Amino acid sequence: MEIRTVTACYFSPTDTTKKTVEAIARGIRPGIQILDLTPPAARENPYHFGPEDLLVIGAPVYGGRIPLVEEEAIRHIHGSCTPVVLAAVYGNRAYEDALLELRDLLSCQGFIPVAAGAFIGEHSFGNTIAAVLASQVKQLQFFAQARKYGSAMEASLDVTNVPTSVYTNLIEAVHKNLDKMYRYVDLRKKLLGVDELHMYDLYCPLIEGVSGRTPIEEAKKTVYDALAPLGEDYRKVLQQGFDNRWIDVYENAGKRSGAYSAGARVHPYVLLNYTGTLDSQFTLAHEMGHAMHSYLSNHNQNPLDADYVIFVAEVASTCNEALLMEYLLGKTTDKKERAYLINHFLEQFRTTLYRQTMFAEFELNVGRMAQEGTSLTPEVLNAEYRRLNRLYFGENIVLDHEIDTEWMRIPHFYYNYYVFQYATGYAAAIALSRRILREGAPAVKDYIGFLSGGCSKSPIDLLKGAGVDMSTTKPVEEALSLFGELIGEMEELMKD
Hints:
- Helix 14 crosses helix 17 (474-493).
- The longest helix has 37 residues, at 335-371.
- The strands form 3 sheets. A 5-stranded parallel sheet has the order 2-1-4-6-7, sandwiched between helices.
- The model has no long low-confidence stretch (mean pLDDT 92).
- The radius of gyration is 25 Å and the shape is globular.
- The protein is α/β, with parallel strands linked by helices and 496 residues long.
- The chain has 2 domains: 5-120, Flavodoxin domain (Rossmann fold, 3-Layer(aba) Sandwich); 126-496, Oligoendopeptidase f, C-terminal domain (Neurolysin, domain 3, Orthogonal Bundle), CATH 1.10.1370.
- It has helices at residues 16-28, 68-74, 98-108, 126-146, 152-158, 164-176, 178-192, 216-226, 232-243, 278-300, 310-331, 335-371, 378-393, 420-439, 441-451, 459-465, 474-493; strands at residues 5-10, 33-36, 47-49, 53-60, 77-79, 82-90, 111-120, 247-248, 260-262, 269-271.
């Protein structure tokens, strides 16, 4: 079929998407038509295309989605078996489902997608985002000073009775163990067989051809069996959740992505988007950990003390994951499968303990710079973020310039010294899981007491009651010691 016209269509407030889409269209045919959806008036008109037309349409990606205004505008664009080329233009955050959204929208409007691509665009909003972050930091500092706190961090942590030393101890302990991350980076480079290891290579799987699909009922049984060390009373409630539809299991039209647990007084409700992968099984264990924490707190505390604070929120979920990992490792005798599981475990350490601590240090340093009068320009923030990536991942990884701007897409930097709790929670969970497996009933009793405690005590005291003292560096150092042991085993398993 001969193409009669090529039309470049886009919503482009900063011209980045415009340049990309027009370049694609002109690459197909020099003489093109333009449909600019940026002016509000243009988005209200109907447009019609026939089977001999070609539409090249692009959208900027905000938060992993296409803009709502462009989505609404597309509903005025009608095709008749019209071929369409789709383009998503994104910054340092992944384009996620943007291309799928475009495909679904255009397909409903009578278009036939024939090609698609995602393109990295310039961070046109760099100055704006830096200004927003700087304003957030200054606001937190103003309110902290007004309330006679020494710093914004102190004000934030005081809300949940967590000493500032917990924050700084975390960073100190991770700094002492950066050699293990450098070792892991070198191992990744070797196993991937690349001359240069880039930051994006950290997300490539090291072991392929192992993981199959596991039906949800089989995954439930696996999680149930894996949590046997927590005792029959715990598993009885867990099974109750499995049997009584506490969980919305599968992906569905209009359903939000990800996973979540809501601790209602009746019983917890869990949202999943289960796909049968190993990650999905761990997500099931993770969210049911939250659910059990909520269930036990609600049934053992009055309504005022039942809600646990964020500092301990990830402990129960991650402890379940650690017990599931130990169970799976104990079951397998296949060398390749064991390597696959260990790689999954190593990635949890990298993404949660190291990466979240790096985020916490960035947030701390940005606050200090602002307090000292440094202007938080994009250049300053980029340089600090690059410095920390080099510190945390070492000299043997290539830092492409795009990584400098990754801070722009990290929402936790606007949450008021929140992100460090992922790392502390993970360290506490590793310590608790190992104590449970090592000591049995006494450790389980203490752990159930922790889960039942809500906010009746400070989070530090609740964890101390379970046998973990987060006011020291010991839990973090012990967790990172395990990380080193796992790297050593991985090296042995992958020897030629």
